[in-house]
From TrEMBL:
Keywords: DNA-binding, Repressor, Transcription, Transcription regulation. It comes from Photobacterium marinum. This is Transcriptional regulator, AraC family. InterPro entries: Homeodomain-like_sf, HTH_AraC, RmlC_Cupin_sf. GO terms for molecular function: DNA-binding transcription factor activity; sequence-specific DNA binding. It comes from the Bacteria.
Length: 218
């Protein structure tokens, strides 16, 4: 969970973005890498995998101010501590609160199918690439029907939504690095800044500047 800044977490099947006031849940025994933004601070809380109520898949969670302070406090405790009755109660309350936190759509699914994996890598490398589904299908010797079916089965999204999700991830990363809105819009291949802002607001409920102030710099 970031205390300041932002963190990107990569697992085998997705890239997860974790802004401030959020946390990423990663089940036990899942290999992953974490990449913090410049100057970021974050904390880790480990939950015994005997807690069967926790989700069995990764997700980004919105974290309430109260739960955030609980998690920071728990993460600062020495690992060898033996919880007393009061600490056990705090852990139970924090766990209950964690279970109530809503999941956020802040991930980019990574397909396992060879051709789609190649396309995902290309989009990550060049997010301004505006090739259509028809063009990607042709470039990879597939019919459009096969391509759209594969994308849906591998990512759970349409191609348009899948690429837009990547744009949200990249935009948030760049905001945390203090890029200008114009520069982010250009990197993502939008025809105008207003078109980028409209997309961002539609997906996250607020324009980029407001999101930066409330969720990254605050």
């Amino acid at each position: 969970m970031p205390i300041n800044g932002m963190m990107t977490c990569r697992v085998s099947d997705a890239i997860w973005l974790v802004p401030k006031h959020h946390a990423v849940w990663i089940p036990a025994h899942i290999p992953h890498t974490n990449t913090p933004s410049k100057g970021a601070e974050f904390c880790f809380v480990y939950i015994d995998d005997s807690r069967q109520e926790m989700p069995h898949s990764c997700r980004t969670l919105s974290i309430s101010p109260m739960l955030r302070e609980m998690l920071i406090y728990l993460s600062d405790l020495p690992p060898e501590i033996q919880p007393d009755e009061n600490l056990e109660k705090l852990i139970d309350v924090a766990f209950f609160q964690l279970m109530q936190m809503p999941a956020e759509k802040l991930s980019f699914p990574l397909p396992s199918e060879k051709r789609l994996k190649k396309i995902a890598d290309a989009l990550i490398t060049t997010p301004s690439d505006r090739r259509t589904a028809e063009e990607w299908a042709c470039d990879n010797a597939m019919s459009v029907r096969t391509f759209t079916r594969l994308v849906k089965s591998q990512t759970g999204m349409s191609f348009r939504d899948w690429r837009r999700q990547l744009h949200i991830i990249v935009a948030l990363q760049r905001l945390s690095e203090h890029w200008s809105i114009q520069a982010i819009s250009d990197e993502l291949g939008y025809d105008s800044v207003s078109a980028f802002i409209t997309m961002f607001k539609k997906e996250l409920g607020k324009p980029p500047r407001q999101y930066l102030i409330e969720n990254i710099n605050k």
